[in-house]
């Protein structure tokens, strides 16, 4: 993730698969942290109150407003319920929260290319959690 050579200070980048927030100051990465779309939206909203957002930040904020349907409170509750499923890692939980898979096929696509072996019960539990928050 070598964004620091190209990024103006304070730029926030949104990856479509997994959302990363890079806080860049004077071309030095301060923090590289995995965040959900809801968290990124809240962070950009807070930054917008402090100062005007840059071009990329505005575009990311508009896209997040269009596509992210969860409120921060619901996202927190959903994350707590997904954490009860033992085989899920942070990146899996974030991907589930961002994409909200509706069936087993959507869930399989989400985990394609990733080494995670969820039992059928765990898959159904994930889908039940998602249905609860749709």
Outline the secondary-structure elements.
Blueprint: E1 20-25, E2 28-34, H1 37-50, H2 55-67, H3 72-83, H4 90-99, H5 104-110, H6 120-133
Antiparallel strand pairs: 1-2
Helix pairs in contact: 1-2, 3-4, 3-6
The strand line-up of the biggest sheet is 1-2
Going by CATH, the architecture of the largest domain would be Orthogonal Bundle
Specify the number of helices. 6
Sheet of most strands? 2 strands, antiparallel
Instruction: Give the overall shape.
Output: elongated
Radius of gyration: 16 Å
CATH class wording of the largest domain: Mainly Alpha
How many extended strands?
2
Task: Give an account of the 3D structure.
The chain is mainly alpha-helical and 134 residues long. It folds into 2 domains: 20-67, no CATH class; 72-133, Orthogonal Bundle (DNA polymerase, domain 1), CATH 1.10.150. It has helices at residues 37-50, 55-67, 72-83, 90-99, 104-110, 120-133, and strands at 20-25, 28-34. Strands 1-2 form a two-stranded antiparallel sheet.
């Amino acid at each position: 993730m070598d964004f620091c050579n190209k990024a103006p200070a304070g730029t926030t980048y949104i990856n479509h698969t997994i959302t990363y927030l890079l806080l860049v100051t004077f071309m030095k990465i301060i923090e590289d942290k995995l965040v959900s779309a809801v968290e990124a939206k809240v962070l950009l909203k807070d930054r917008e109150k402090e100062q005007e957002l840059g071009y990329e930040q505005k575009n990311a904020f508009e896209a997040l407003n269009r596509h992210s349907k969860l409120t921060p409170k619901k996202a927190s509750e959903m994350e707590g319920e997904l954490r009860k499923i033992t085989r899920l890692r942070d990146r899996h939980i974030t991907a589930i929260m961002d994409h909200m898979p509706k069936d087993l096929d959507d869930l399989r696509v989400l985990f394609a290319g990733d080494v995670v072996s969820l039992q059928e019960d765990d898959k159904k539990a994930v889908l039940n959690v998602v249905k609860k928050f749709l």
